[in-house]
Amino acid sequence: MSDTRSGSGYVEGEFERDTDYIEDRITADGSSPWPVEPGRYRLIAARACPWANRSIIVRRLLGLESAISMGLAGPTHDERSWTFDLDPDGRDPVLGYERLQEAFLARDPEYSRGITVPAMVDVPSGQVVTNDFPQITLDFSTQWTAHHRAGAPDLYPEPLRDEMDEVMQRIYTEINNGVYRCGFSNDQKAYDKAYDRLFTALDWVSDRLADRRYLMGDTITEADVRLFTTLARFDAVYHGHFKCNRQKLTELPVLWAYARDLFQTPGFGDTIDFPQIKEHYYVVHADINPTQIIPQGPDTSVWLTPHGREELGGSPFGDGTPPGPVAADEEVPDDHGPGGIGHR
């Protein structure tokens, strides 16, 4: 999902996100024109974007790297599209595209909706299949099971799905999108309402996590992935840039310990690129930050401090195992992680 106002609107000063996505699905049972097929599809994501970061985490936790290749757009984009400026010659090495927009136009030459990440692209045709970000990750869990790694966690367990769906919906509307509702409010009344909604929801998840290690109990689920990508950006971006400043994450004891617990779990923190995150928000949102100056802080080495959540019991992967080392070509640069250059 793109982090700009493009395709979004306002009602009485309140930010409303455009959710008009291509809703095709890649399925294992032949119910769609797009069958599960290892090597056929390419996930296009961006480390800067919280919505795309979810797909990077879920792909890694489930061990789908060999089945679904990944291309990464750079942290900034213009009004047209995310671009592949991190790659040699500025082109995705598999698709040959300079802009993600090309995959959308290959699908529909008249396409006029948002060009967003994450997106699944059919490599043979070069066409985008879907950019329906919440469904993409659920389908990784439910449609690609034949290609999960041994020991992969069940991120969307059937007995919990009804409750999970309710929890994830509230996290999306009130927290994931809530920080944007604060940042892009068009008047004081809308901002005040958005601020109250956001921190009411943060208090709710804090209470929920006070006596359980993860949102749904003793093991990680997709609900934790969805909350984590917002928490990881909170102090670096949302607290100041989006005026979500009742407290920093580091001042919310339960959520700060929970966020560090996940960050230090393989598959979570090893996908986070703080310099790209800050560059994206502070440069792309020039209407909020006209100087486009990127702050040096905060110190991210604190993400590696002890969290103490083990005392609550549970195990992140249950009876499974953590994912192995990050593939060499998908590692976050050493100087982009906690304690690295630019994080002091």
UniProtKB/TrEMBL annotation:
Gene3D superfamilies: 1.20.1050.10, Glutaredoxin. InterPro entries: Glutathione-S-Trfase_C-like, Glutathione-S-Trfase_C_sf, Glutathione_S-Trfase, Glutathione_S-Trfase_N, GST_Omega-like_C, GST_Omega/GSH. Residues 157-284 form the GST C-terminal domain. Transmembrane segments: none annotated. Residues 305-344 are annotated as: Disordered. PANTHER family: GLUTATHIONE S-TRANSFERASE OMEGA-LIKE 1-RELATED (PTHR32419:SF6), GLUTATHIONYL-HYDROQUINONE REDUCTASE (PTHR32419). This is Glutathione S-transferase C-terminal domain-containing protein. It comes from Blastococcus jejuensis. The lineage of its organism: Bacteria, Bacillati, Actinomycetota, Actinomycetes, Geodermatophilales.
